[in-house]
Specification:
This protein is of the alpha+beta class. The protein has 11 helices and 13 strands.
Length: 330
């Protein structure tokens, strides 16, 4: 937290840049941001420093340049992603490196996401959550989310799709607050309205796709292009995947007469709820993210399947649900 970056125990141990990064992450995730200085002082942890408030004042005066530079870099990278998203363009790693815009931490990467969201024309409609190999939970906002119609068919309205991932997703019945204490799996089930079969659509704004420093890929919202909320399915499927037993279903994905995927599937974390539980309990969950009505998806059942949605794509999770997906209609 920001107060850890400025209290007397850590003040001399953090480099200027590291301390600035901690401050910037806190600023970008504060529920209400006004001016830089008022946001810094609105942190309740700072008010509790008592006589150490002079240390905070010293921090403010000596770190302003580093903080402003870090904020400028975040805003500039976010604008680059906005331009690439609007124009269908791609950004090279070399170009980002040349301007020293690669986020140094996961917190900075999520600050880029927030800056993007604040300037994007559409509100956040959902969240893509995951657990990294090191156990840390991360998330990325999704903006373009569509639902299947009564015939279980959907047309995604935007060009540029490069791949699809079939997933189990959840719609939220209430806002998930920042964790005041550990939230259990049972606690989180109480925030879930319905369970659906769904498909995430991928588009890489980066030339090198996901072969870049991970914070940069996270800043690009983990390549999310949109999401299709498929048919509602029995909530019991979550426990079937969590059990990771022999009864896991078969998934087939076909485009026209071409088979794109045909195999038994499992969730990358076993339990589809695991990333939601981990993220809800993480410091990244500010209480301003996971909102009622949002769709939350937590991992592909089939990896990333290359597809441009050139033809009708039929998705069937045997005995569970099925739907048809297509690209923009003429």
């Amino acid at each position: 937290m920001f107060c850890d970056a400025v209290n007397h125990k850590h003040y001399h141990l953090l480099s200027h840049k590291a301390a600035a990064r901690e401050a910037v992450y806190w600023l970008y995730n504060a529920p209400r941001r006004t001016s830089l200085k008022s946001a810094m002082w609105s942190n309740p942890g700072i008010d509790g420093l008592g006589s150490d408030r002079q240390i905070v004042t010293t921090f403010w005066r000596s770190r302003t340049t580093e903080i402003m530079d870090a904020m400028a870099a975040i805003e500039k990278l976010a604008k680059s992603f906005i331009t690439a998203s609007r124009e269908g363009a791609k950004i090279s790693l070399a170009a980002v490196q040349a301007e020293d815009l690669i986020p140094g931490t996961l917190g900075e990467a999520m600050a880029v996401q927030r800056a993007f969201a604040e300037s994007w024309a559409e509100p956040v409609a959902g969240w893509k959550l995951a657990i990294r190999a090191d156990g840390e939970a991360i998330g990325a906002p999704m903006f373009d989310c569509v639902r299947v119609d009564e015939a279980n068919a959907a047309s995604f309205p935007h060009d540029g799709t490069e791949g699809i991932e079939v997933e189990i997703c959840f719609t939220l019945s209430a806002d998930i607050p920042a964790a005041a204490g550990p939230m259990t799996r049972a606690d989180l089930i109480g925030f879930i309205d319905k369970v659906h079969l769904g498909a995430e659509l991928l588009r890489y704004r980066l030339v090198e796709k996901n072969q870049v420093p991970f914070p940069l890929f996270l800043a690009d919202r983990l390549a999310n292009h949109g999401f299709v909320i498929g048919p509602e399915v029995d909530k019991g499927i979550v426990d079937v995947f969590a059990g990771n037993g022999e009864d896991l279903p078969q998934l087939t994905v076909t485009e026209g007469s071409v088979s794109l995927f045909d195999a038994g599937v499992k969730h990358p974390n076993g339990d589809p709820l695991a990333p939601l539980v981990a993220f809800a309990n993480a410091a990244f969950n500010t209480g301003e993210m996971l909102k009622a009505g949002n769709v939350v998806t937590t991992g592909s059942l089939c990896g990333a399947i290359p597809s441009t949605l050139a033809g009708e794509t039929h998705i069937v999770l045997k005995s569970i649900g099925a739907f048809t997906l297509s690209g923009p209609r003429p």
